């Protein structure tokens, strides 16, 4: 706490207005702006990565003992400063399995400004913090906020977030679903995965998106590599087969425009073609069947 207090005392006049996304409802910043003092900023006296990790290290043992899990840092933005009239709407944090801590760094208030927490028993609890106090909470599952307007000049907090530690450098965080587009993006951004495994994740994501008719996801996958839109899974199924079986006309057209093989068969060449699966599931008059026929598709039946 001494490091944070010193950093606050040396730099509090350098806090800058936070740039919340349009439509944000977490705070009433459109009326009462919040301010951020970035503790990771190396040009601020006492700031930088060294201070960030010192703050994480100061609480990790306590929060690991509380959760019973081995944790790793998730995010630590800085000291958020609320001004008179500010509120923090009740909410949960976006990512699952996030365990968090709040440190009250400084305040100048006319009355207490408690954080309201809706516990797992459904009951509301108001927790009053003084400078130097630490509160632990499951920010992904427990509704929390400060719904009553602040009465005073300012209230300065640090929010410290952790996620469960993964056991392998190439392993997904435990809150991500393997094969999801979110998992694929995370792996690419963090360079955490061998190419072969990355290809598999991409293929599965394309298959799921094709089956569900999720065009936005397919366009994003195409940005990485157009060829992935025609890659086979372990059963020889390609996104075009999934789209045909689901009757996704727009997806079929998109995949063909991006180089999908019209007449490839499932099961390593022993299964059915896209036209076969479309006809089996939707009949000859379905628009998906008509589109495939117009493109020259062949009705290739399974060999068994």
UniProtKB/TrEMBL annotation:
Q: Which PROSITE patterns match?
A: ANK_REP_REGION, ANK_REPEAT
SMART domains per the UniProt record, alphabetical? ANK
Q: Which InterPro entries match?
A: Ankyrin_rpt, Ankyrin_rpt-contain_sf
Keywords tagged on the record = ANK repeat, Repeat
Renumbered ranges of ANK repeats? 235-267
> By what name is this protein known?
Uncharacterized protein
């Amino acid at each position: 706490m001494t490091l944070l207090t010193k950093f606050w005392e040396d730099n509090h006049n350098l806090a800058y207005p936070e740039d919340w996304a349009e439509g944000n409802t977490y705070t009433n910043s459109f009326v009462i702006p919040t301010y951020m003092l970035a503790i990771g900023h190396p040009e601020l006296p006492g700031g930088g990565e060294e201070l960030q990790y010192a703050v994480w290290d100061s609480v990790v043992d306590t929060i690991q003992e509380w959760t019973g899990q081995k944790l790793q840092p998730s995010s630590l933005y800085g000291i958020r400063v609320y001004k008179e009239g500010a509120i923090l709407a009740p909410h949960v944090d976006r990512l699952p399995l996030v365990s968090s801590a709040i440190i009250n760094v400084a305040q100048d208030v006319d009355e207490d400004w408690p954080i309201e927490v809706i516990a797992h028993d459904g009951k509301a609890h108001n927790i009053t913090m003084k400078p130097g106090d630490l509160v632990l909470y499951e920010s992904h599952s427990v509704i929390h906020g400060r719904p009553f307007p602040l009465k005073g000049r300012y209230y300065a907090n640090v929010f410290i977030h952790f996620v469960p530690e993964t056991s392998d450098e190439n392993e997904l965080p435990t809150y991500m679903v393997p094969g999801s587009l979110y998992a694929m993006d995370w792996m690419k951004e963090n360079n955490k995965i061998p190419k072969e495994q990355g290809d598999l994740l991409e293929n599965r994501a394309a298959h799921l998106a094709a089956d569900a008719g999720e065009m936005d996801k397919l366009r994003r996958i195409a940005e990485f590599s157009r060829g992935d839109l025609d890659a086979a899974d372990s059963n020889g199924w390609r996104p075009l087969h999934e789209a045909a079986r689901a009757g996704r006309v727009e997806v079929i057209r998109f995949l063909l425009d991006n180089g999908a093989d019209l007449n490839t068969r499932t099961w390593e060449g022993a299964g059915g073609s896209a036209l076969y699966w479309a006809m089996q599931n939707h009949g000859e008059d379905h628009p998906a069947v008509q589109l495939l026929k117009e493109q020259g598709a062949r009705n290739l039946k399974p060999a068994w």
